[in-house]
Fold:
Amino acid sequence: MAGYTGEKDDYLKRLRRIEGQVRGIQRMVEQDTYCIDVLTQISAITKALQAVSLGLLEDHVGHCVVNAARESDEAAQAKVREAADAIARLVRS
Structure:
């Protein structure tokens, strides 16, 4: 079971809103909207995706990592490494 299962509907609502924002940017580009206005919207979407990412990461640590720690030290270490790798990918993006 995924760590975010309890908040799945909230995540889906946020992702659908982001999807709508991306479609809005597509329309802006099709309509030759001023560059800075497009970049402003891209920045807003980036922040929204970061918020979803941080929420998922928090859920992962609070659920998956904690459950793995209850299983064994090896399972906990594997989940912590997995989380650290995900954090590294998020920081690089």
The chain has three helices and no strands.
